[in-house]
Recover the amino acids of this structure.
């Protein structure tokens, strides 16, 4: 490519934002020309993030559509929930392409958003306009669009682990149980007792049981794939580690398929999609095996005794679950190869 | 009590063994008179475990029934699987009372043991004789017996979390799915790549899916309680922490019971049993909240959308899941209060 | 003892406070009759600390001298710095005996306090009255007094590691360099970016270099022991773990003493003091080897090449570095054996 | 560059080896054409390292000079100590350029090697031939040579932190004390009780005090820079984390220089060297701020009270302390820009 695309990052002082900065720093087609922060505008980004010393020496910009448009063509929104819904209209109007990581535009129903997020939803037209950027399933749909909604971290691991089986009818969607686990970075950089080191270290806990806002997102997509409403049981747990999500999923097998059949089905479904790796029968991925990378690794165990399959899916929540997948969507939006700038080897150990 | 009971510990250089030493050091009715090790006999136990410096200055004894009998009345076996089955006959014959923590005597069926443990089973008469020491369920059964089989760590958390609901018919046993997570100390002190620090830290992984030897143990007891065979889905995961087990359990609710109904049911069932704490509706226990103690804490979430209940049960795998429960069994065996010497406050943070 | 001493804990919702609750729960001579909190008075203590469920069912009291005196004879102050200085006068006046863990009464000089703590110092008469409770050095001095100032966590590990050598002239006090490391619980339960899980996990950092408020405390005591002013270099680091302090200390050896000579010197100095364990030559203690206990373990390495000794001293910051030592002081204050209720085996692993 | 340089990695199943694979995968001038292992030859490398699934599908080669020469022009040796000394002669003879990460060729004196490493040293001619690859100090010296000895992890952090001050006479070399801390990956992938998860997690310990084999390496270089023999006190500690080294260094300041003077001195010394970042006065680097990157960050605190400076230097032990610095040396050896393929943003959090 001859010239680079200029991008801005709103919410660049959060973990999703700095991960975008990390990944885009080595992307051959992109220049990050503006990093913004409503709380720290005017100060150097490296002050709050010393790992960026001498890498980014610029000051944080204010969150202002016109200012951003003067510097960039595409903008990532990496704020907490409830902010993007307010920013998107002016950003689009200013002529920017928008990739929203925050979750505000994922649910097509305003009511559902308000029920689960306990916040005012975005206007319906933006919910309608936003294309859900789960590249391995809906990849082509994002080409050329102006507004992409990036999937949530848990939905990414979960949906990539379930969709081929649901679509092929290998499992009964009404029996799906999802036991998810996440590293603590998923909670962001805002301090709270729930992310206080001494409370989390050497501790394992469940939270938001049957109440997590990713439940309707998962069900919306599964219902779309299944062609009928799907209701799931979904539990989230906090793991004493920084990065990584594992989704352990259970469902009743329909049709007597073996683990090997699942491996074959998934390999076919994800053929050509570099970021999904299906593990061979009898092995299952661990979160560290995708750490720092855009991979989603999946493994299976069908148990003949119970007639159920256990599906294990892992991602790095900040990469495939946030910044990496957002860049993958940018690549597709721009008509580039989806792997551009994302071919990292996982960091191990 | 006037005089102390003398006890010996076989396998005292493993984590279960040193935890027995820690807990028994402050038990008012017990004196640990012999710590044995087949691999390190003759050397001071504090050499391999410097935290015992000046606390235990004795040398490790050989594993010899006559020697042990000359020093003790009761013996704990805290070896890896496959050893107790060989030791128990001579220990009983020597006149010792035996509490086996190793798992060799938990399954009543030799075939089942050999299938899941991949080792030669103990002789049937010892399997028949051994009383399963899940105190809150079968407590009275261990009074006065000579041979107790201490439950496994995962079965302890899981069974205490499921039995009242299965017994009362609140859940359909055929729908039980158990997603279990354990700290790394459960794997013992033997070194391996699977317990190598750099492989486990910042990592979360599943293992032995549908193959764990605790599956038949759980099913044996659930079947006993349900009055019919029960088959379950059971997955184990390794958490990057040292101590703690959480069992997250799912089942279909029969009869429209709410979370509060479960709370009431369990509080009634465990009435008077100090080591089970039922959390109030809407809160769930974390592993750190029982760390270092003999508690098993349990919480519930019934989801009306799916008709399923999620049950969370936590223990310290080395205490309630091993050494603490073994001492609780000793207490009952001796006719003492089951809490004697075990009333520790959990260590937090 | 026939009747128990009633004690109150001010600041019982901090980590030092809950550790006092944990340790005192099994102390044979003490009853905790009041737990207070200025921020959460009126609510059950177990609400903020679910590990205390069914163990302490009382509500938090307000911080009120008369109320406390109506319930207790002795009070522990476990607040952040800057509060005890205000509370102590009324507590003493109400007739309570006071053990202050907060640090407000450790420095004899108001100027020094204000320089290093950046807060208003207590009135001079209380600084004069408070006896510094480093039991192994000044133990007898606290017998029968009304006001004890409990040493800081770093000073405890550091002073116990240095005093015998300074006193005996084995090292040159002007060459002392102290490189200290602490687990994160030392920073308390108040949330901040510096104790946010994702910032601390997999991270090791130095802080407050040459600025830590424990520097003048260490120098005050070393100067007292040396008989002349001592100035030291002291660096603190944060270790990604919850509990534990290690002080690694360096000094030039005077007189050609070997590691074995240091071992002998320290064993003699601490003869009869159960909580200091001197490791044999060639071995050094690790923090986990004292975790959960009141021990301070010390080891040495004299290097003939450089003429310097390296001294390693470890404690559990919440026990020997705070709550445990405070109870040890209570024991001495009451004329009891200093080990009463404190004879825990360290928790390992 | 038109064509890529083919490189082989001996010891590619160790942590240093897989880190080379990770970093070289995105290096624009290099192709890794052979990964070898004496213990696992013939099996796919991704079998032991599932994070490489679909990234490297080749089988491990035997360690054979002729075979390697048929595939590569340059070879990295990333074995444990004591192996490179035997391999180097045949590799050089086969016409390969060699970069040794193992430490066998760092000490110029065979006696010193044998004293500290307790192994047979390499022949003197290879010790003489090997150029010590500390790029920021001796960078130009490695251009075009055939045999480079890559510095050790602790020496890298320590020497970069000390050399400008020693060279400029700002500190007295005879007063240098080095308190070093390392993550556990530095101990390699070989299992042992010392790297067993439950022994290391929530633990902090010192090891090899005054005995570490990196002592003579540090002293050799410091002596070279100072122009006279230097003897140092050096202590190593194990931090419960996977990656990262911090060297906290102490020395007496000569000439009344302030922290700001040190900052200026170091900024001048490292002018143009992208991988050393000098922190501004009053701030110090943490290990996570360089994690996954080739940076070495350095900060200072001069204490007027003691006349000493505290210098903090951090690196990622597997990158700047091993594989990254080895690639930096390859770049220089090839006449490329030293940053080629190494411009990673640190991974944070």
């Amino acid at each position: 490519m001859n010239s680079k695309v200029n991008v801005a990052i709103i919410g660049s002082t959060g973990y999703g934002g700095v991960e975008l900065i990390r990944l885009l720093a080595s992307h051959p087609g992109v220049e990050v020309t503006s990093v913004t922060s409503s709380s720290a505008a005017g100060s150097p980004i490296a002050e709050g993030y010393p790992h960026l010393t001498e890498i980014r020496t610029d000051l944080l910009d204010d969150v202002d559509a016109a200012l951003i448009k003067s510097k960039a063509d595409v903008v990532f929104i990496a704020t907490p929930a409830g902010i993007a819904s307010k920013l998107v209209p002016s950003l689009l109007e200013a002529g920017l392409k928008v990739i929203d990581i925050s979750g505000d535009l994922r649910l097509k129903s305003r009511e559902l958003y308000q029920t689960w997020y306990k916040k005012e939803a975005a206007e319906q037209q933006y919910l309608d306009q936003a294309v859900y950027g789960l590249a391995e399933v809906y990849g082509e749909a994002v080409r050329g669009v102006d507004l992409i909604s990036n999937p949530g971290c848990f939905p990414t691991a979960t949906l990539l682990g379930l969709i081929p089986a649901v679509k092929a009818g290998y499992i009964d969607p009404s029996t799906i149980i999802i036991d998810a686990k996440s590293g603590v970075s998923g909670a962001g950089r805002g301090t709270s007792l729930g992310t206080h080191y001494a409370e989390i270290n050497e501790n394992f806990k469940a939270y938001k049981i049957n109440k997590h806002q990713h439940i309707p997102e998962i069900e919306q997509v599964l219902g779309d794939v299944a062609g009928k409403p799907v209701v799931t049981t979904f539990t989230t747990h906090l793991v004493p580690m920084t990065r990584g999500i594992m989704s352990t999923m259970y469902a009743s097998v329909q049709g007597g398929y073996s683990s090997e059949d699942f491996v074959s089905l998934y390999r076919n479904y994800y053929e050509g999609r570099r970021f999904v790796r299906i593990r061979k029968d009898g092995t299952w991925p661990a979160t560290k095996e995708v750490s720092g990378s855009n991979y989603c690794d999946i493994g299976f165990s069908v148990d003949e005794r119970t007639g159920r399959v256990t599906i294990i899916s892992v991602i790095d929540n900040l990469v495939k679950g946030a910044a990496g997948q957002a860049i993958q969507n940018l690549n597709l939006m721009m008509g580039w190869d989806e792997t551009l700038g994302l071919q990292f080897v996982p960091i191990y150990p």
Summary: Chain B has twelve helices and 13 strands.
